[in-house]
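Schema walk-through. Below, the input block comes first and the output block second. Nothing else is stored per chain. Lengths vary across the set, and this one has 461 residues.
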Amino acid sequence: MLQASMFRFRFLLAYALMIVATIVAFELISHFGTSGVGRLLLAAPTAPLRTVPHPDILFHVLLTLIVVILAARLLGELFRLIHQPPVIGEVVAGILLGPSLLGRIAPSVASYVLPDSTAPYLQVLAQIGVILYMFIVGLELNTSRLRQAPHATIAVSHAGIVIPFILGSLLALWIYPHCATSDVPFRVFAMFLGVSMSVTAFPVLARILTDRRMQHTELGAIALSCAAVGDATAWCLLAFVTGFAQARASSAMITVALTVAFIVVMIVLVRPVLVRVARAVDAHGSLSQGAIAGLVAAFLTAALASEMIGIHAIFGAFLLGAMIPHGSLIAREFTHRLEDIVVCLFLPAFFAYTGMRTQVNLVSSTMQWAICAAIIVVACLGKFGGSAVPAWLTGRSPRQSAALGVLMNTRGLMELIVLNVGLELDIISPTLFAMLVIMAVVTTLLTAPVLSILLRGGNET
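--- output ---
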């Protein structure tokens, strides 16, 4: 016992002496380095001028993320309670934290929680999040459903793209003088407005059908097939629009040609390789970190390639995801590992960034609110009529046709992604951006209650 105590005492004494010796040695070195002789011998060159971030920027970015994540989850759960898609609550949370509400009623709080200095950093997080999200959407897109879909379903889905596109282009004839500038060619403006009317939020639609236990019904299968075909078509249209918008008139066709070549290469060359890799991973029975790293590098390369072509990076990520077999272990495992962090971290950053750019107060005059109302009406009529009427003409019951038209009117997050692309390319103004965001929220909010009314007392199959 005494021997153990002596050992402990010697150990503590040695440790204390080591600490004291370290402090004394450092003080001697520091004294020499700051003395006259030391400064003469240790003269260092002048530091070059450089721009450094504000020391509080990380604090504000972290604070912003905490606030938007909590607000998004809170409003998402509240919207779930009223039988609305939680993603709409998350979108509304981002808008409420921006200049549309918090910036007006408590500007000092808004400038502290969401200062303008955080916008570039939120933009980077938002862009990465959207690229990741679109890759996941591509993974969840069952391309076999597209190949196996009946011709009538494909016709309905394409009519649900063409009719809203034409109506949106017609609407552009009225609103172009009020909501655009001469810097934006009318052709590009009309094409973008048509695409913005044509989008269906495939993931939100799938969630609505799952919540109502309709995903395995005939109506659910038709809706998912139509949304899959329609979304693939709409994203191709968006790729062409961004190509025209970013290229000069002389090089626009080159961008379109490169886009077509990119799609062909992905389908003809890349997809067979990914199918073989997916089969090998399925046979192995597990997805290694090396495989995940290779997959991440692949979809980032696809995103980079589409960005270099002149279309948005999200298209490359989405297309690569769609090339991977839907039911493979790669698709299931990668989605399982990545989806939660994307939904809980990156998408709230996207909602916050969108909220900072959405200024509902810009829609102030009677004419502007009339345009906003017209956009909502045209969006609803285009999607509902473009899907319901062809479905009825191809033999579906009136109730089922109407329900399908309502489901296709779901826009949600996918619409916001399209709108942010348009705002970044200066195709649409901040005022029109706010109008279209309102349209996206309203049309998605209408889906669940109108669907309940249509199917009340009826057969959901």
